[in-house]
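Exercise 7.
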Amino acid sequence: MEPSISVGIMSAKQIEFSLNGNFVFADQHFTGKQTADFANGKIVFCGNEYEQISFCALDETNSFELKNVTIGINFHWEQQENQRFEGDLKLIAENDEITVINIIKVEKYLLSVISSEMSAGAPLEFLKAHAVISRSWLLANLTEQNHANKTNNELLISDLSNKNRYIKYYERDNHISFDVCADDHCQRYQGTTRATTHAVRQAIESTRGEVLMYENQICDARFSKCCGGASEIFENCWADVNYPYLTKVIDNKAITNEISSDLSIEQNAREWINSSPASFCNTSDKKILSQILNNYDKETDDFFRWTIVYSQKQISEIIAKKSGIDFGNILDLIPVKRGVSARIVELEIVGTKRQMIVGKELEIRRWLSETHLYSSAFTVDKKDIADGIPQQFILTGAGWGHGVGLCQTGAAVMGAKGYPYSEILRHYFINIELAKLY
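Solution. The predicted structure, written as tokens, is:
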């Protein structure tokens, strides 16, 4: 049977929403524009106080619209928009705000995810592949098998008072009131706001209930925007759990992992990042890029290889702001540990006042950018050294995102080249099987 899930959309002191059609709460019918406010630890709605409110749609075609939903939180495309959703609406008073939750069936959720994560005009076989991995990731994280494998996130966070080391990873299992959030932290879910095409519906319907399996368990399938030519392993980005199906993949059918260089070695990583290897995701095809990138993603199209230049003032101020630590002038950024895709897992920051090792990859990306670096697969070059202090840092990087699992850009190119979705999935996920759950 197809399950329902709860999706956390937003939190705010005041929630403005419109109910399009009849919704029921406490045996009363509601429709049209509504406002709920947080006060005295409760939700104030229609003059009454509640700890939580559930508006149940009387018809599956009913929808509700939320005002001022923030998308791309802390990323370079962060913005607000009004969004429309199908299913039921739930409001919870928690953490001095109102949390908005959408209760919806899995397949309808996927209709939005596939249209939110990329343009709905992407190649059909790519959309099918994405439907399967999005469904797999979602259902794997709802099963007891996955929760048993999770490590408490707090156990992997070092105290900032430790002058030597701060290691942190971000995972979806820190959500308590709902199954998944609606932003990039989990999967982009923007309701019916994004246009859903016939191709998206066909991709969902033709793969209905289909998931990736490995040794009789649903795969914790992952994806990122662009692997940069080589995918990363799970444990270098999240918990210290080894998933054999999430291993290094060279994004080129003509080159196998066995004959590729060890990118965890610094010199090999530098040569790799400073090159432009033939890869599925190494494309400048505007037609393909326009099909897989939403409007706010299109602000950048140089993500296979990229360069950022910081002055001493810029880099020291950004690190101080994002880490909360005054390192003084930055003397060096030293890769301590790289993953199999050349992504830095641990980076030593050396300053005139303090030095520290930071990880994992997302925390490194956070500390070195006003938003997030495209990836942690980068090299560091220092220029204009005066009195031992570099006046300029040049970061040359590869890829966009963590690089684990399916590469959206590479998979879209494979789809455009005529590869069926099953072959696309078997390229990025090793020794998996496809199975229908319902």
